[in-house]
Structures are given as C-alpha cells and as structure tokens.
Amino acid sequence: MIAAIAASQRLVLHLLQTQTDLRPLHGDLHHDNVLKAPRGYCAFDAKGIVGERAFELANAFRHPKGCALLVGTQRRVLALADLWSAGFGVERQRLLQWAAVKCALSIVWRSRGPVLHDEEQGLLARLLACAQESSTAGAL
Question: Do 50 and 24 form a contact (C-beta atoms < 8 A)?
Fold first, then answer.
C-alpha cells in the first residue's frame, strides 16, 4: 500500500508539472453528482476548480459507490478510459494517471494518519497498472 501511495505522489508531481488545457472544472464529476431533470442532465456539487481537462473524470472511475466488485475490474477501467478519453478529447494515459492519483488522494484523506489498509487499495493498484500499461503500449 505504501509503495502505491509513493508511486502516486511521484505521478502527481509529474502531472502537475506538465498540465495542459487548463480550464474551469466541476472537480467532482461522477455518477452521484449528475441527475436527469425535466430540462435534461444537471451536474451539481461542483468544487469549482481550475485544472487539466483530463482530471475532470478522474473521480468517476471510483463510482458508483457500493459496486466495488464492478468498479475495480480491469475490463471496466480500460473500457471507461477508452470511452471517456475519446468523448472528452483527452489522452487516455493521462486520464488513467489522474484517476490513480485521485484514488490515492481519497485513500490518504480517509486514513487521517498512516495508510495501512483501505477498501480501495485494489482499485488504486489496478489504476496504476492500467496507466503504466497505457504508457508502455503508447511507446511501442
């Protein structure tokens, strides 16, 4: 677990130093923060941050809550990365990297101290692995 958090720390430093396409973001866009209303879909509970466009859906990889067996599967992670990178016009690898960093951040916030174990440690490992695989595949 500590190694995954350390890898995420190194990764976030790289991501922050190489950001592009900065813009206003919702900052917490995921399934539970979007509702279908009579006028159409409405996103709420915005954090109102400025950041790289690829960060916008980082938290959505962790949702919907209560579906841990589905959320952490490699098949789903890669399918969402393909769908959302194309739909948002962002690099697939950066989307996966931001997702891993956001997952690690949530783990650290929840721990309120030393990080020994967390319900999302498997998801973090999967996101880091998928981001690395994407990097390796892109280099071929």
Answer: yes
CA dihedral angle for residue 113, residue 69, residue 34, residue 93, rounded to 10 degrees:
80
Q: How confident is the model over 74-95, as pLDDT tens digits?
A: 999 999 999 999 999 999 999 9
DSSP string covering 33-90, please?
Answer: GEEEETTEEEE-S---EEEEGGGTTTGGGG-STT-HHHHT-HHHHHHHHHHHHHHHT-
For 61-75, write each residue's pLDDT tens digit.
Answer: 998 877 777 888 899
CATH number for the domain that contains residue 59: 3.90.1200.10
Q: What pTM does this model have? A: 0.88
The count of domains in the chain is 1
Domain that holds residue 24: 2-139
Cα distances (angstroms) measured from residue 47 to each of 20, 21, 27, 28, 85: 20, 18, 5, 6, 22
Give the residue numbers marked as catalytic: 28
3-state secondary structure 12-38: HHHHHHCCCCEEEECCCCCHHHEEEEC
